[in-house]
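Anyone else keep sequences and structure tokens together like this?

Example one:
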Amino acid sequence: MNATIYHNPNCGTSRNTLALIRHAGIEPTIIEYLRDPPTCERLIELIAAAGLSVRDALRQKGTPYDELGLNDPALSDEKLLDAMLAKPILINRP
């Protein structure tokens, strides 16, 4: 089985998820998304594969979400994606 994890080594949930994957006997491909964010095209693919809307894929807690005014419902998906790519901490990894 192949698995990929978009990992933040400073995040406890991410570390626990990585440990669970390894405990299952799988050595995943690890992408440190804060250092190596996905392309716009890949981010769109990942959001679609997760069955989320772009807005649902935005992480709010512990991010500049409020400071950037990303709670504005008038913002387009393109603007939200631009913000996630500029500040990858905004990418919520379900």
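And example two:
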Amino acid sequence: MVRKELVNLLEKNIILFGKLSERLHRDQIRFDGYSRQQVQFLVRLHISGKTRLKDLAAREFIPAPNLCTMFRKLERDGLVLRVVDDSDRRNTWYSVSETGASVANKFIDMFHCAVAEVFKNIGKEDENELINAFKSINTIFLKMESENA
């Protein structure tokens, strides 16, 4: 069983990261006519690469029909490409177009600038401590993910 201290710290950090995320998205990033969710999925698709709709839906815990609806505008605007698999028509592949990659990179750059602004006054010692903590967290989470895959 997971220890109570771990659960409490995780809960507090999730709340803090949620507040930080809201601040970053609210104060720093303009979405240029797209919903936050559309932008987030465009960026995730750009980072993860070509994927099947059903895999993306499972990974994001969103029903596939909802993803289709959300991607429709992105596809219509030429940011997302949709290809039905010729060998198995039940599979639909989504990827980011060249234009979509450019837009995704724009939002990634804006996010990086927003993060830099939030952390501009942090001391070098605190920054190094956060970097080391995040590296440890990432290592543990990746290990957990590979063991549970």
